[in-house]
Amino acid sequence: MKRFYASIAAAALLTAGIAGCGGSSSDSGVLNVGLTDAPGEFEAVYVTIDKVMVHRSDESNESNSTWLTVADVNGTYDLLKLRDGNVSMIGVANIPATKYTQMRLVLQYDSNDSTVHPYGNYVVIGGTPSELTVPSMEIKESHNFIMAPDGNMTMTIDFDANKSIHSTGSDKWMLKPVLHIDTK
């Protein structure tokens, strides 16, 4: 757990140093996006992430509400390597200082490297990869946070593999993601 917070703190300090170089106030802040996982029962759990988006809320003018891409990822991750405080920083974005109400994690059907990964999303059990059926490639989660002007926050997406993967019988598996999101 200490390594987890140390990773987050290091990323925040690095980004704060980079963001602080301008010396002037702005109407935006920096959002660091990290990915981690709770313990699970599998040898490996791979997901291929296309992008991460947040929903900007404008309560005074709904037409200004919009989705912003905060991480163009296009990467395949073994969630089980992201346990015990290990976090993979998957993006950094400068976003407008305002209120945000949702996060969207967009998965890909295919792997970004089929020579290494036979499927975009799969589990390994007994040394054998099994494709995960994913009902929706867009996972939306309600998540409120406010980015302050010149702010620097880290959003950590904790993908709970053990609660997210379900057997459908005959060695078939389904991914119904259970996420926990923390923004500090």
Map the helices and strands.
Layout: H1 2-19, E1 28-37, E2 44-57, E3 66-78, E4 88-96, E5 99-107, E6 122-125, E7 128-133, E8 138-146, E9 152-159, H2 161-164, E10 165-169, E11 172-175, E12 179-183
Parallel strand pairs: 1-9, 7-11
Antiparallel strand pairs: 1-4, 2-3, 2-5, 2-6, 5-8, 6-7, 9-12, 10-11
How would you portray this structure in words?
- The chain has helices at residues 2-19, 161-164, and strands spanning 28-37, 44-57, 66-78, 88-96, 99-107, 122-125, 128-133, 138-146, 152-159, 165-169, 172-175, 179-183.
- It is mainly β and 184 residues long.
- The protein is elongated.
- The chain starts with a helix and ends with a strand.
- The model is unreliable at 1-23 (pLDDT under 50).
